[in-house]
Batch of 2 targets.
Target 1
Amino acid sequence: MQDRPDARELLEALEEFMRERSESSQDRFDRFQFLVAANSLSILQRELQMDDDFIRDEWTGLDALLGAEEPPVRILDRAARLRERNGDLCDRIENGEFDGQGEDQLLRHIYTTVFNKVRIANPREAV
């Protein structure tokens, strides 16, 4: 683990720098590019803060829908397996496995998962 500055502090400093550059640039294209970079850094910061909890919530929801499974220990392995499990969920939805009785549980899981993704991407839209 790095001491100081840590990843969060570096991202914050870069975001602030990009926002300042976007405000002071005379060129419209440069302003836009700096703003896109600043917004991207802001998303990364929120992902660092919230993603572990959201992944855990999504995994738990998938456990309820697909059957319990221990998540991999390594973060990258967990993210890869989460994508695979979501693919399995899509296949089951396509095959009609959640029509009727399981539909309410499925819709709650989808809503929660999408809402959490919006909270990272653009929290102003997550109302």
Target 2
Amino acid sequence: MSTLLVVLLVVAALLVALAVGGAIATGRRVRAGASSLHQQVEEANRQLAAAHAEDRGWERSALEGAAREAFAAAHPAEELAGLDLVQVIDRPGTDDDEAVFRATGASGASHELHLGRSEGVWVPAGR
């Protein structure tokens, strides 16, 4: 009877080890998938903001130029490494429009830039 008990205990221990190992592997796979999904959502948001801006006739080069100037004014000691349009807020009229950029400095720091229009010219939004 004790041999049967030992065999049952070994089988139970193996089943528990397999269940724990499976849970750990599943957790890692889910975390890796979530990171990939987050990157895909961020890219889709950038593309949607750019498409929306183009659809509304906003000139991308003027927007980016204003964002670069706003970054240089706000962070004069930091070099701009990347600039992504992440949101377009198109309100009635033109002076209430807003564009939001994510600017990345050479140090890797990320900054959010809000631009608005003043008499048809893109300027840093007063936030």
